[in-house]
Amino acid sequence: MPLMALTRLVLTDFRNHRDTILNVGTGFVVLAGDNGAGKTNVLEAVSLLAPGRGLRRAPLTEMARQGGSGGFGVAARLKPLPFRGGVWGGASPLDDPPGDRPHPNPSPEGEGLVEIGTGTQPSAPERRVVRVNGATAAATSLGEWLTVLWLTPAMDRLFAEPASERRRFLDRLALALVPSHAHHSARYEAAMRERNRLLGTEEPADPDWLTALEARMAEHGAAIDAARRTTVTQLSERLIAQPEGPFARAGLAIEGDDATDLAGRLRAGRARDTAAGRTLTGPHRQDLAVTHLGKGQAAHLCSTGEQKALLLAIVLAHAELVADRTGRAPILLLDEVAAHLDPARRAALFERLAGRGQVWMTGTEPGLFAEAGAAIRLTVHDGAIHPA
Questions:
Q1: pTM attached to this predicted model
Q2: Residue 92: what pLDDT?
């Protein structure tokens, strides 16, 4: 599959954006504006062009613009670009030559422009629709075209949140390296929900049906566990090998159940799970443990600034790992990333990101991105976007 650059973004009745159109390039895209202007809404729109519920994980009904049609649309034009010497495309805007049109028969191996989009209809505001070059597609198919990673201020609390939030973070990292991870996760969750339902009924559950569900959980659970461990192993190797610098070095490990003899453990634990009202063993109980290697301290014991640095180090290393392993530079969405970095660390961040694909960054002050060099610089105000 060729590398795809997002060159055009169209928002229709999305959040506070009525009809925003952006033509962008493959380097830095800087969005500056006051709080509440709509900067993060643009990043959220881009995040919806990948599998999943986006960077806010918000209900679809919340995404439609108040006073709008009742539905919303997010559409993008993608263009194949070369990837040579670790650099993806260029840093200047891309203008489509006259006559360029989406590829008439899109395929992962095909060339030419591709148009993807997602949104809802006013008549069905809770049902997400995905299209690739006008044809209806599954949301998971978006991963064939784009890999999108993000870091938001809400993620600063990741190490203090329940384990489920760190699992979700880990699963996003794994999905970028193992596209089938979404399929296995969905099948595992569906089988577990059905098993929990059967165990919760007053009548004794059919043991053969339980055995079949547990076998399905074991099959997909093994794939989930393998994808997570592969991701953690590869990412840990990259993080440990990095020299000391302006960003923290993070150690990663998976804690909790693995998938060894999962079917047997589930069968043996039926009475316990019935009493608990949920399944108490399996990869859905795992946690991602993060350590500040420089201090030898667990992330949840570190200061807020250190936790932010650890997250940034993980996201940057993961983006580089994805590009190296897949040949596809991910789109990075960095919300308010420069707000709490000193000038030296900001300059180091921009230097590390340069030439690594398309990076969208937001901030309240344009001066925060003075060291970013060549970039598309935009001002956001009340859902309207203008050149800075």
A1: 0.85
A2: 32
